[in-house]
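Justification of computing resources. Each target in the renewal requires a structure prediction run like the one illustrated here; the chain below, 395 residues long, is used simply to show the kind of job we budget for.
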Amino acid sequence: MSAGTLPSFDPRDPLGLDDLLDPEDLAVRDTMRQWAADRVLPHVADWFERGEVPGIRELARELGSLGALGMSLTGYGCAGASPIQYGLACLELEAADSGIRSLMSVQGSLSMYAIHRFGSEEQKQQWLPRMASGEVIGCFGLTEPDHGSDPAGMRTYAKRDGSDWVLTGRKMWITNGSVAGVAVVWAHTDEGIRGFVVPTDAPGFSAPDIKHKWSLRASVTSELVLDEVRLPADAVLPEVTGLRGPLSCLGHARYGIIWGSMGAARSAFESALDYAREREQFGRPIGGFQLTQAKLADMALELHKGILLAHHLGRRMEAGRLRPEQVSFGKLNNVREAIEICRTSRTILGANGISLEYPVMRHATNLESVLTYEGTVEMHQLVLGKALTGIDAFR
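Resulting structure tokens:
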């Protein structure tokens, strides 16, 4: 091939990664990108500043109409999308805001996934179609005030009372909590850790919002309080006992974070790139100075290596070959690099980098939460350390 027939260099896709996508993948990506541009980007800085998302239930219904809720699941009104398509949707939503991607992820990859994989047929029929449409929002109760990285130490307990279950305990940092119609709650029982499908209108259930957040402000985050919540015998997820249940759900959600974090990074990088071309100092655009170009080059390397890693892990998931350690690899690398891209972008924007007129600082603060939720840096390092050495350093 002669130089004259080479495709032109695209600064926003320098490796030509779009070549990895088929027309259906591109259609999913473009649909989600356009929806985010129309429905999120014009408002998200205001939502972030106010610390609330007006009309979040309507946003959920719109995502449901696009097939984005539980999109990687099959049946029950779910889209049955490929892992790559799900990842692309996460990337495009997080390029708008991590909180909006969290709305979709918790709905589909945690609460719906738990019911789909471990629930009874009756539970699936009762909840999944309405969750897929966005009519019902779900949340996922695992983390507790005193037990985050060590969920085995949870204190929430479910005891039998005749044929019923009675749940008592508290969960913390629960996305979608106060707007959810159903909660998947994990609790100790005499039989081991079990999952329960809890309608949020059950007596004794409450979900007060967590205030004073400086991250994920365009997201609903709540505490779940279970004060002797009485549930029928068939509220328990029948197909799993032990931590394998919640951890498998988290693995599916972490896969979405691998893609989503690159969306936040892309948004910050593109803001810095555009700014460097337009901002003039010393009589020329700052993008013409060597130090700025070095920053842009290094950010482009990490951004597109991260997207390539997400693609690779997506193909492994599609083939049924994606291991939990590989998910940890992706989550650890991509979120860490995304934060660094945001910080470097902020330096290019100078003082403007801290303004909500630009997305950079919003993404940076959001990613501080993404860095530690669904597995802290240290936990993923230890997962990889154990896999590399064969020695368990957790305890």
